[in-house]
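Recap for those who missed Tuesday's class. We walked through two folding examples back to back. For each one, the amino acid string is listed first and its predicted structure tokens come directly after. Nothing is annotated here on purpose, so try labeling regions yourself before you check the end of the notes.
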Amino acid sequence: MLSFHQVLCSDLTIVPSAYARSMFPPMLQDRIAVQFEGFDIQPPLRDFGAAGDAADDIQKPFTIAFSARDLSSAKGFETYIRLVDRMVREGDGQNTRFIAIGDAKASTYGYEQQWVERRYGGKVESFRDHLLKVYPAADVIEFPGHLPYAQFSALLAEVDLFLYPLRYGVANWGLMEILARGGCVIGSNWGFAPELIAHNVNGLLLPDNDDDWIEAIRQLRKDPARRQRYAQAALETGKAYHIAKVAPRFMALFERAMANRKAQLVAPR
């Protein structure tokens, strides 16, 4: 209701995705503009245009990562844990590195921590630890925790495939960070993700079906050329949201808001 009140009291409301706009009642949507934020993300730490050493690539573990500010249900963290558990049990863990980047104790938009405290009475520290009890084969995952930005950026460059199994949310800077750095991403085909990821262009979009995700992971692992194609397209997506291109759009929206206010002030009673 606070969001509805904001729209009613504002000359113009800006939301970061069309999905966010769609969640408002139709009668309010003409008072809402869609514009995702602009970024000044530095170039990727890898040269995606250069062919790698095939022998070296064989020796390196294939790295599959989840990355979010918080390891929460809304971001699909339990889906990542469940997929890793299954991959390990089915033999996909050989020469594979699994990383979950994010703070297991960060505040979330949900109630995971309260639920864990009620269920375990303080004997389990976090939602992550609860999930590892449910999916024990996923204990191979590395949890680097909250990182300084330079270390976070360097770690992103080590990842071959990012999983973004979003459940809820209207926008996310973290997904844009991954795309702008040339990350190869499999994402959910609902919510706001399809506004940033074009299926089979700069990533893959999949339904909430573990079999589909496992098959896509296996196929992309065997197809480095396809991963590189997605990565190159993802870099272009990132460029489209550079602050130099987005700032003029925001200025136009501010001018639109001022024009709305002026029109209201001079409108005949």
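Example two. Treat it independently of the first, because the proteins are unrelated.
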Amino acid sequence: MTGDRHRVVVTGLGVVTSIGTGVDAFAAGLRAGRSGAKPITAFDTTGFAYSNACEITDFDPGAWITEQSPDGLGRAAQFAVAASRMAVADAGLTEEQVRGVRSLVSVGTTDGESRDLDHLTGLQVTGGDDVLDAVVARRVWPGRLSAGIVRELGLEDVETVTVPTACAAGNYAVGYGYDAISSGDVEMALCGGADALCRKTFTGFYRLGTIAPDVCRPFDADRQGILTGEGAGILLMESLESALARGARIYAEVLGYGLSCDASHPVAPDRDSIARCITAAHRNAGIDAADVDFISAHGTGTKANDVTEVGAIRQVFGDELPRTVSIKSMIGHTMGAASALASAACALALRDGFIPPTVNHRTTDPECAVDCVPNEAVDADLRVVQNNGLAFGGNNAVLVLGRWDTATDAAPVPTAA
């Protein structure tokens, strides 16, 4: 980074997942290799041969949403608002402090409020075009995922963005926040992603033949596909100067990110495009591939994704691959929340010195031969981690985080020009 650009750090995390809500519960779930897989209760699965997902069954929106009616928000927006409140509290900030600075709210999503669209479509199918649930119809707008956060926290001097780049949207949103803080446009950013389990997405992946019948097994020779999931991950980011001035606890520094869009196929990943995205992220972060201690892969557990992604990683890293894991084996594919929750996991890994496992693993596929940290977390001295987010339409976003070392008052020293 050159000139007057600010260094950017993560000082607060908010997470809602099927393996734990809140930072401590999520961290414990990652370390334990907990699985959120269970039979779907969110909608009727009659007619499907199998119907597991990583559904959240213990979320109480009223515990977090206090300045507006939870019923005025769809489930994805409820997750996003709750995670933002958690992130603010986790950062040691009061609502008054948050309201007092120029800020950004950037939330990525794949489905928006498709769960509500499922409901409205069902009403029309059974009752005709004249049947409408007005309360649900009003909350369908996907902009409420970010606008709901602004309203809940009472933000005024704020830019509000909802990023619809599918399953890489969380990293896109975090990258947007990184640029806004590093350039000095804002002082604080709440960035991440949110999505709710819905019939539309489950059915779409099922028809593509990419839903696993039981659990998700990334990189495994017997992998059979994804499990859909839901939740939200929000990172509170600020400039390093701001964090140090208020004595904030720092999870990690955002070193940089890379984006690519090949648009070569609606659903099939492109190896060369992913490799370009990884290289762009390293260049933006000022690191070499050899500096990366582990990779949080997109790792969906489908035949095509895992082979292609590992091929792209090998294209950049050569034969010496860092450990490469997928937390989707635990929390499922949470769509727009996926890379945001993985970013939160990476920040926790840097702070606590561990690599989360890829669970449900039995035998590594020779075509995607990586050390996926099978089934049990490992302790590790981490300096730099890479988080891959890949999406339909060739939308790719790779984020690089570094450990903040309070002893030396510095982040990892870049080795690349």
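Answers for example two:
Residues 410-417 have pLDDT under 50 and may be disordered.
The first helix runs from residue 23 to 32.
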